[in-house]
Amino acid sequence: MGLLDEQVSPAVAAPVRANHPEVNVVSVPTWRDADLRGEPDGTVLRLAGEAGLTLVTYDVSTISPLLVEWAASGENHAGVIFLDHRTVAQQNLGGQVTALLAAWTAGCDWNWTNRVLFLQPAVRSSRSANAARPPALPCLQQVEEPAADPVRGGIGGCTG
């Protein structure tokens, strides 16, 4: 599925894999013997793409301009999923797991080449205050059309 960058806790990977063992999710601090720690974003994004891993990050401010630059030059990536502290707090590991599982469910069959998604906030029910109901899963917002390239990157292990 993806590569969690240094801003996403590596502790998120295990519960995602536990819920869906077919989902390949790794983190920068543990992938490739941690040799990507502190590397420039372009290097991380490029190597993730070469491995067919969608980058999962909170780093909108530096990854977004990089994506614009790559699009202008014709360079491909294996997709980016942006998390935002307003939608899923960095300290909310359970929320990150839920959001990534929702992304896997929604995007299992997608071509992730050059796809960019922002996870959106959960929708809360307007039911009575006495009726405790968990929020719905976050939905996804696609912000960039994927390339017509038939090569599939990103989310693997689709079973249906």
List keywords for this structure.
6 strands, globular, six-stranded mixed beta sheet, disordered C terminus, single chain, 160 residues, alpha/beta
Topology:
Layout: E1 2-4, H1 13-19, E2 25-27, H2 41-50, E3 54-57, H3 60-73, E4 80-82, H4 93-107, E5 116-119, E6 140-144
Parallel strand pairs: 1-2, 1-3, 3-4, 4-5
Antiparallel strand pairs: 5-6
Helix pairs in contact: 1-4
Helix content: 25-40%
What is Rg? 16 Å
Shape: globular
Order of helices and strands: EHEHEHEHEE
Q: Give the rounded overall mean pLDDT.
A: 78
Number of helices: 4
Number of strands: 6
Unreliable stretches covering 5 or more consecutive residues: 121-160
Q: Termini separation (Å)?
A: 16 Å
Let me know the largest β-sheet.
6 strands, mixed
Strand arrangement, largest sheet?
Answer: 2-1-3-4-5-6
Structural class designation:
alpha/beta
- Amount of beta strand: 5-15%
Brief overview, please?
Helices cover 29% and strands 14% of the residues. The protein is built from 4 helices and 6 strands. The two termini are 16 Å apart.
Verbal overview:
By secondary structure, the protein is an alpha/beta fold. The protein is 29% helix and 14% strand. The chain contains four helices and six strands. The protein has helices spanning 13-19, 41-50, 60-73, 93-107; strands at 2-4, 25-27, 54-57, 80-82, 116-119, 140-144. Strands 2-1-3-4-5-6 form a six-stranded mixed β-sheet, with helices on both faces. Residues 121-160 have low confidence and may be disordered.
